[in-house]
Amino acid sequence: MNSIIRHMPDATALQPDFRSAMRQLVGGVSVITVGRGDEVTGMTVSSLSSLAVDPPSIIVSLNRNASSWPILQRERVFGANLLAADQIGVAERFAGKGGLRGAERFAGAEWRRRVTGVPLLVGALATLDCEVEEIIERHSHAIVIGKVVHIDVAPQSAALAYWHGSYVGVDREDDLGRLAAFSVPDPRLTP
Ligand SMILES: Cc1cc2nc3c(=O)[nH]c(=O)nc-3n(C[C@H](O)[C@H](O)[C@H](O)COP(=O)(O)O)c2cc1C
What we know:
The chain has 191 residues and is α+β, with helices and mostly antiparallel strands. The chain is built from 4 helices and 12 strands, in the order H-E-E-E-E-E-H-E-H-E-E-E-E-E-E-H. It has a 7-stranded antiparallel beta sheet with strand order 3-2-6-9-10-5-4, sandwiched between helices. The chain is globular and about 60 Å long. Bound molecules: flavin mononucleotide. The site of flavin mononucleotide (FMN) has 17 residues, from strand 3 and strand 5.
């Protein structure tokens, strides 16, 4: 097996390797939404993950230069919208494609409000309405811990992931079919 293992004391020298290592990590794509009324915005993230089931809580890492950051810090509530494979357009808008800002990013999709009042995406795989429990500012980013106060889950459909700098659809039926084609038969299951 070919592997690259380097031990370098200088953190700057490690950055290219770090970037290429992180490109190997498959990330589910979500959109964080913040603000209420006219002052709404949001951003595409792949850093969202589950923190705990009891209490239901999530963790997400946000760049403190992002336009969402001051609003999230002030309002202390946010939405986490887990995107379906056919929502690449939403992901691109909230990544700032075409220079879209603030409320412009919400155009072309349907949004609703639940408990906290932040916009939640209709048709997302799941939406989590969250109150900020804790913020840890570290390096360029803020690690935000969200306490989930409302959940909507859609019927199962393909998920949107990001891998090696590209969007990838993850479809349970398709991928199970492909896996079956490659899998070695289990002798215990064959007569
Ligand atoms: C697939 C994908 C995943 C991203 N994940 C994150 C993330 O986890 N944290 C983050 O701070 N920015 C992330 N970004 C970048 C932000 O979406 C982008 O910088 C942000 O929307 C721009 O902020 P702005 O509102 O200041 O324009 C990601 C971008 C893409 C395309």
